Amino acid sequence: MNKITLEKHLKSADSDISKLILLLAKNSIKINKAFESQYNYTSSKNCYGEQQIALDKFADSLLIKEFEKSRLVKTVASEEQNELIEIMKAKGEFGVTLDPLDGSSCVNSNLAVGTIMGLFDEGNVMEKGSRMDAACYVIYGPLTSLVYTAKNGVHEFILNSKKEFVLKRENIKIPEGKIYSPGGLRKEFFPKHLKLIEALEEKEFKVRFSGSFAADFNQLLYYGGIFSYPAVKSAPQGKLRLLFEANPMTLIMKEAGGEGINGTENILELKPEALNQRTPLYIGNKKSIELVKKYLR
Ligand code: FDP
Ligand code: ZN
User: What is the pTM of this model?
Assistant: First the structure.
C-alpha cells in the first residue's frame, strides 16, 4: 500500500495553511526530542499561577520563533503568554492560537500530552471559533501523532522512524461509544452537572480521565463519548481556555461529526472577550451532547 504523508495529504488544503501545519509537525519532532532532557519543573509559574515545566517554556518559545520566521503569521496568542504577540515583519495575515504543551502536569508521570493549534487566516484570534480556518493537535504518547482539520474532515497521521507523518485514518467520525472524561472535583460540581454525571453513569459510560485534555480528546475519536470540564464552585468559568483549548478542539470535533458546548451554547459561537478567557466545556459525540443539553438547560 502506498503511504500518504502529511505533506501529500495537505495538497488539497490552502497552501499557507498547509505550510503552518507542516511547521507545527516539524517542530513537534523537536519538542518530542526535548522530553528527554527537559521534563523537570522550573521555579516559574505561568499567567494562571500554574507551575511550568522547562518543556512548557521550550515548546512555547520554539513555536513562537518558528511562526515569526515563517513570515505568514501576524499574531500569536499562546496559553503561556500574557499578551498577544504581534509580529511586525510578517507578510501574511494569519492569527495562530497555541497551547504549546497541554496537560503538562502529566509529563512528570509519563502520560501522553499534546500541542494544540488554531489558525485564522485573517489574523484575528479574538473572533468566534467558527471563523477559524484550521485546527491541529499533536499527541506525544507511545507514538507521536498529528490530527488536523482544514474544514476538510479530520485526519490522523503517525510519525515514523524516517520522521514522516504518515496517514493512519482519514475522515474520522467520532463513534457512538461510552467513554466519559469528567474533569473537576465532584464535591465542587453544581447540581445540574452532577445530575448529568449520574445520568452518564446510569447509561454505563466508563470513566477514562488522564489529566491531559489533548490525550483524553484523542481517545474520544477512537472510542466515542464525552469529555467535560464544567463550571465548578471555585471556578465558575471552568478551567479550560476558550482560545487555546476549547475552540480548536471543538472545530475538530465538529468536523468529526460531534459538538462542543459550554453547557448551553455552542463553543464556536462564543465571542471571546479576553485572551485568557476560560469556559466550561462539554465536547463529544452528538448523542452525549444532547444529554448535556437536557441536563444543563
Ligand atoms: P494542564 O493544566 O496540565 O495543562 O487546561 C489544562 C489541563 O491540564 C488539561 O489538559 C486537563 O484536562 C486539565 O487541565 C486537568 O485539570 P485537573 O488537574 O483539574 O484535573
Ligand atoms: Zn492546555
Answer: 0.96
In this prediction, residues 209-232 reach a mean pLDDT of 98
Q: Identify the band that residue 186 occupies on the pLDDT scale cut at 50, 70 and 90.
A: very high
Average predicted confidence (pLDDT) for the chain? 95
* DSSP character at residue 161: T
How many whole angstroms separate alpha carbon 220 and alpha carbon 222? 5
For residues 144 and 166, what is the distance between their CA atoms, to the nearest angstrom? 11
Name, in order, each residue with C-beta under 8 angstroms of 69's C-beta and a sequence gap of 6 or more.
none
What does each C-alpha distance from 273 to 81, 96, 188, 278, 285 come to in angstroms? 17, 17, 26, 10, 27
In CATH, what is the architecture of 6-169?
Answer: 2-Layer Sandwich (3.30)
Q: What whole-number percentage of the chain has pLDDT above 90?
A: 88
Q: Which residue owns the Cα nearest ligand 1 atom 1?
A: 103
Residue 239 Cα to ligand 1 middle (Å): 7
* Residue that is written with C-alpha cell 485568557 in the block: 276
Rounded Cα distance between 61 and 72, Å, is 17
| Closest atom, ligand 1, to C-alpha of 241 | 5
| d(CA 175, ligand 1 centre) in Å | 24
pLDDT digits (tens, 9 = 90+) for 65-87: 999 999 999 999 999 999 999 99
179-296 belongs to which CATH class? alpha beta
Secondary structure of residue 114 in the 3-state scheme? strand
Q: Which part of the chain has CATH 3.40.190.80?
A: 179-296
Say how many Å lie between the CA of residue 138 and the centre of ligand 2: 12
Pairing label, strands 179-182, 225-229: parallel
Atom 3 of ligand 1, residue of closest alpha carbon: 103
Quickly state the pLDDT bin for 53 (edges 50, 70, 90): confident
**CATH 3.30.540.10-classified regions of the chain:** 6-169
